[in-house]
Amino acid sequence: MSEPIKKFLYLNRRAPYGTIYAWESLEVVLIGAAFDQDVSLAFVEDGVYQLTKGQDTAGIGMKNFSPTYAALGDYEVKKIFVEQESMTARGLSLDDLQHLTWEDEDEDYAEKDSIQVVSRAELAALMEDADVVFSF
Known about the structure:
There is one protein chain. The strands form two sheets. A five-stranded parallel beta sheet has the order 6-3-2-1-7. The chain is an alpha/beta fold. It has three helices and seven strands, in the order E-H-E-E-H-E-E-E-H-E. It has helices at 21-34, 84-89, 120-129, and strands at 7-12, 38-43, 79-83, 101-104, 110-113, 115-118, 132-135. Strand 4 (101-104) and strand 5 (110-113) form a beta hairpin. The chain is globular, with a radius of gyration of 15 Å.
């Protein structure tokens, strides 16, 4: 008898550059998704900056890895949660974030939004529902 699939939630709390955490989280998510894990991502605090549009890293001498988030849908990562309170505190809205999508095979490959804006309470419930939470 096979074990039930576990739900993995990757909690991203840090800004995209200046540390390795954001890049490491993205790599681990892609690896997990490649092995058919049930993967969700959540962005809180300064982690919301990881998804902002138009990132330019030329001035800090680091590679801009933000375009990689657009590939998440190809890996069946379609549950991306952004905490509303964190966005509001940083003066951001959904319009400031990249438009991430996935294709729904059951609906003739219709593109659907991956990002869901959730309240702090809703995010707490998602964390409670996850079997494993990794914090970056």
